[in-house]
Amino acid sequence: RPPTLQMEHRSFLGQQNCRAKGGAPGFKVAILGAAGGIGQPLSMLMKMNPLVSLLHLYDVVNSPGVTADVSHMDTGAVVRGFLGQPQLENALTGMDLVIIPAGVPRKPGMTRDDLFKINAGIVTTLCEGVAKCCPNAIVNLISNPVNTTVPIAAEVFKKAGTYDPKRLLGVTTLDVVRANTFVAEVLGIDPREVNVPVVGGHAGITILPLLSQVKPSFSFTSEEISRLTDRIQNGGTEVVEAKAGAGSATLSMAFAAAKFADACMRGLSGDAGVIECAFVASEVTELPFFASKVRLGRSGLEEVCALGPLSEYERTGLEKAKKELAASIHKGVSFIRNS
Ligand code: NAI
């Protein structure tokens, strides 16, 4: 590639020494799949985050355009674009946080599992790059099916000898964002005041909202519980069908990913009590990976929180979720071990 494709843009506020606003050292963040439906708005939101000092935008297509566009925003982060596999290593070298929304999204009639073959290959290649170029970076994995791509990433890192479960997080924030919104509609309050823990995994019945633990606490009727659970589990399909062939959730997903990345950076900065839900290596159940509330800190994932008391409805849901999750996790592990 001609060197001009490896661009560097400095915004009006951008400083040569990559410092975040206020003089605190900022974080170096790479987005892999930055030109996609999620990648573009996510690139914009990360460019707006004052904790980011350097933003690397990588994709196999169109990253120069996205980079030029985002770089004109007069915020602090320096933006650089990287195009195609030969530039992956430069995109990753020195990064603190790598966010991966690369892959193909669901089309109507497709399940997340249909995406498996294509996205598994993409995630493998990108994680091999992470293991080689920034083995200490925190990875936020968005590419679906998350229930399988996270175990794949773990296997890739194990093979490379760089695996640290504290640094690999599957992004399930969109399930929480949706749950907060849908519950707020029922309660008639601002969604920012609502907190719904969503545990399990990130596909269909593995998405388990714990409505018995909603803050502010509320006694839902059993009809409300079953309707809300169903809507939260199928929120992705609601968007896929409404978009009618034009992809899956991108804007709400970018918002959710930016929220999660911000929480990771606040944890890395030493902020106390940063709690989010994520799909991580876990001992909360007998499964090796499980989504639940986690505490984020200086080393990434610092604590996986216990599930807390579950209702009868949630206990039944948990058993069903675990069955499906076990199969999805196994699929990811075998994909690498048998390859
Ligand atoms: P998209 O097709 O609009 O964008 C994907 C981008 O990845 C494209 O720009 C493509 O060029 C790029 N890409 C493909 N192969 C690549 C490679 N080897 N290296 C770098 N970039 C590569 O898809 P969209 O809508 O942005 O979705 C991306 C992924 O996120 C999909 O797997 C989708 O299922 C998943 N997703 C995850 C959610 C979650 O909650 N975790 C929610 C919504 C979507």
TrEMBL record:
<feature type="binding site">
    <location>
        <begin position="33"/>
        <end position="39"/>
    </location>
    <ligand>
        <name>NAD(+)</name>
    </ligand>
</feature>
<dbReference type="InterPro" id="IPR001252">
    <property type="entry name" value="Malate_DH_AS"/>
</dbReference>
<dbReference type="GO" id="GO:0009507">
    <property type="term" value="C:chloroplast"/>
</dbReference>
<protein>
    <recommendedName>
        <fullName>Malate dehydrogenase</fullName>
        <ecNumber>1.1.1.37</ecNumber>
    </recommendedName>
</protein>
<feature type="domain" description="Lactate/malate dehydrogenase N-terminal">
    <location>
        <begin position="28"/>
        <end position="170"/>
    </location>
</feature>
<feature type="binding site">
    <location>
        <position position="59"/>
    </location>
    <ligand>
        <name>NAD(+)</name>
    </ligand>
</feature>
<feature type="active site" description="Proton acceptor">
    <location>
        <position position="202"/>
    </location>
</feature>
<dbReference type="GO" id="GO:0006097">
    <property type="term" value="P:glyoxylate cycle"/>
</dbReference>
<keyword id="KW-0816">Tricarboxylic acid cycle</keyword>
<feature type="binding site">
    <location>
        <position position="112"/>
    </location>
    <ligand>
        <name>substrate</name>
    </ligand>
</feature>
<feature type="binding site">
    <location>
        <position position="119"/>
    </location>
    <ligand>
        <name>NAD(+)</name>
    </ligand>
</feature>
<dbReference type="GO" id="GO:0006108">
    <property type="term" value="P:malate metabolic process"/>
</dbReference>
<keyword id="KW-0329">Glyoxylate bypass</keyword>
<feature type="binding site">
    <location>
        <position position="144"/>
    </location>
    <ligand>
        <name>substrate</name>
    </ligand>
</feature>
<dbReference type="InterPro" id="IPR022383">
    <property type="entry name" value="Lactate/malate_DH_C"/>
</dbReference>
<feature type="binding site">
    <location>
        <begin position="142"/>
        <end position="144"/>
    </location>
    <ligand>
        <name>NAD(+)</name>
    </ligand>
</feature>
<feature type="binding site">
    <location>
        <position position="106"/>
    </location>
    <ligand>
        <name>substrate</name>
    </ligand>
</feature>
<dbReference type="InterPro" id="IPR015955">
    <property type="entry name" value="Lactate_DH/Glyco_Ohase_4_C"/>
</dbReference>
<dbReference type="InterPro" id="IPR036291">
    <property type="entry name" value="NAD(P)-bd_dom_sf"/>
</dbReference>
<feature type="binding site">
    <location>
        <position position="178"/>
    </location>
    <ligand>
        <name>substrate</name>
    </ligand>
</feature>
<dbReference type="InterPro" id="IPR001557">
    <property type="entry name" value="L-lactate/malate_DH"/>
</dbReference>
<dbReference type="InterPro" id="IPR001236">
    <property type="entry name" value="Lactate/malate_DH_N"/>
</dbReference>
<dbReference type="GO" id="GO:0006099">
    <property type="term" value="P:tricarboxylic acid cycle"/>
</dbReference>
<keyword id="KW-0576">Peroxisome</keyword>
<dbReference type="GO" id="GO:0005777">
    <property type="term" value="C:peroxisome"/>
</dbReference>
<comment type="similarity">
    <text>Belongs to the LDH/MDH superfamily. MDH type 1 family.</text>
</comment>
<feature type="domain" description="Lactate/malate dehydrogenase C-terminal">
    <location>
        <begin position="172"/>
        <end position="335"/>
    </location>
</feature>
<keyword id="KW-0520">NAD</keyword>
<feature type="binding site">
    <location>
        <position position="253"/>
    </location>
    <ligand>
        <name>NAD(+)</name>
    </ligand>
</feature>
<dbReference type="GO" id="GO:0030060">
    <property type="term" value="F:L-malate dehydrogenase (NAD+) activity"/>
</dbReference>
<keyword id="KW-0560">Oxidoreductase</keyword>
<dbReference type="InterPro" id="IPR010097">
    <property type="entry name" value="Malate_DH_type1"/>
</dbReference>
<dbReference type="Pfam" id="PF00056">
    <property type="entry name" value="Ldh_1_N"/>
</dbReference>
<dbReference type="Pfam" id="PF02866">
    <property type="entry name" value="Ldh_1_C"/>
</dbReference>
<comment type="subunit">
    <text>Homodimer.</text>
</comment>
